[in-house]
Design brief:
Strand content: 5-15%
CATH topology: Rossmann fold
Radius of gyration: 21 Å
Structural class: alpha/beta
Distance between the termini: 64 Å
CATH architecture: 3-Layer(aba) Sandwich
Number of domains: 1
Number of strands: 8
């Protein structure tokens, strides 16, 4: 039989857990999007990842931050959010400090109609984020739009970047048209206006084998895209209006860099690998099997191994050592 003190201790543990279960059960039934948010926060905390907001000069940035000692900045795709990196975060060695922001203008970061969201400005904001968080030098990995931002950041702020991993980056026209390229002639699937068009985007272009997305996750992701459709249109227009894209950034990257692309990517065809290799001959490249565009969600364990192997034993781009402390970048 429990003593009075043991009983009080048990209650102190069980009551908060019961309240969490009740809150999650209510949210599942009445507000599935909220359920996904709450469940994600609980799961993140159990894996040592917290959510915080950082004020930049022109935006408030919402981000996930881990507890490791080696910063790894993760930049998401246009239609996605910081949560897309959680499967990867759970697979990475504990020494990595995951830093996964919602890009300004997307996710739960602030939006400003007067701001410009082209790749160069987003890269400048990420450099400011690195400084605000006092991360020093970081490893960077980016998917799609996030990959293009990562390349620009590595090119313009070399003293901040230890290595860069690009995953099916945007900013080039691939030699072979993708399924998405062909579909875009009839409108842009990246700007869904309904739950059904969002589902079609996920099923037709984002994954090699579409996952069974639960009701809470689907509700959260579809609402984010539908609710901010008009603003997303502005963000995409800002990106595509810029004349300087990926091909301009790649030659300026001095940090070890690798390019990963899935062979079943329907959003951006993997023929982009050969094209980017001609632009940046020292770029380490690999085409992966069994996945589509959303590599961090489809094969997180494989991506974790790829990142860790590359960071541990990076491909040396030049036999001449570069003193990063002597390199100066633009003012933030």
């Amino acid at each position: 039989m429990l003593s009075s003190s043991e009983s009080d201790s048990a209650k102190a543990i069980l009551i908060p857990l019961l309240l969490v279960v009740v809150a999650l059960s209510w949210a599942w039934i009445s507000r599935p999007s909220l359920y996904y948010t709450l469940a994600t926060q609980v799961s993140s905390r159990l894996n040592g990842i917290s959510t915080k907001t950082v004020q930049l000069s022109d935006h408030d940035v919402r981000l996930l931050v881990g507890k490791g000692s080696e910063p790894l900045l993760l930049l998401h795709e246009f239609t996605s959010s910081k949560e897309s990196w959680l499967p990867l975060a759970k697979e990475l060695p504990s020494r990595y400090q995951v830093v996964a922001p919602d890009l300004p203008g997307l996710g739960r970061s602030s939006r400003r109609s007067s701001a410009d969201y082209d790749i160069e400005r987003q890269a400048t904001r990420m450099a400011e984020l690195i400084r605000k968080l006092e991360l020093g030098q970081v490893h960077i990995a980016g998917l799609g739009i996030g990959g293009e931002i990562a390349a620009n950041l590595a090119s313009r702020f070399p003293e901040r970047v230890l290595s860069v991993t690009l995953i099916a980056p945007s900013g080039i026209a691939t030699p072979v048209a993708s399924d998405f390229d062909r579909a875009r002639k009839d409108g842009n699937p990246l700007l869904p206006g309904s739950a059904e068009s969002f589902r079609q985007l996920q099923d037709n272009f984002m994954y090699g084998s579409p996952p069974k997305m639960g009701k809470p996750e689907f509700s959260f992701k579809s609402k984010q895209n539908i609710q901010f459709r008009r603003f997303n249109q502005k963000v995409l227009a800002d990106i595509e209006a810029a004349s300087s894209r990926l091909s301009a950034s790649l030659p300026g990257i001095m940090a070890p860099s690798q390019l990963l692309w899935c062979d079943a990517d329907k959003l951006r065809d993997s023929s982009g690998v050969g094209l980017l290799k001609t632009i940046a001959p020292t770029l380490q490249t690999e085409i992966l099997s069994g996945c589509g565009h959303m590599l961090p969600e489809e094969l997180p364990a494989l991506l974790a191994d790829q990142l860790d192997s590359f960071i541990t034993k990076p491909y040396i781009q030049d036999s001449t050592a570069v003193d990063m402390t002597s390199i100066h970048s633009p003012e933030i």
